[in-house]
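Notebook entry, structure prediction.
Reason for the run: the old model in the group folder had no record of what sequence produced it. Starting over properly, with the input documented here first.
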Amino acid sequence: MCPNVLATVAAARPSNLTALLWVNGHYESSGGQALPSAPVDWVALAKGIGIEHVERVADVASLRVVFPRARAARKPALLVLDVAFRSERADPALLGAAGRDPGAVQDPMTAAVGVDVGGLSPTS
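New structure, fully documented this time:
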């Protein structure tokens, strides 16, 4: 997630948006490259930008409690979950994918969830 997304959400204030941020230390969508080691405090960043309902979630049991609470808040919410990176999901063909067709990077992800993002069909 880019910080500018948080700023946009804070400015638009949609009452029906609860975002889950899976923090695993890697660029999962483009092949699994490790992120730079500079830490980001996503909770403090989101609150500083103006998102009022922000919570760090420690485990699945906590998520089951926190998610309905975030939805009931009727304001933008961000739930930050620290998760393990699963290296077996990293696509070696996409490592160092700069300059590649965006569809080649997005299609495996969109196919996994069965959605069409911006005309990039998971079945094309």
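Summary: The chain has four helices and five strands.
The old model has been moved to the deprecated folder.
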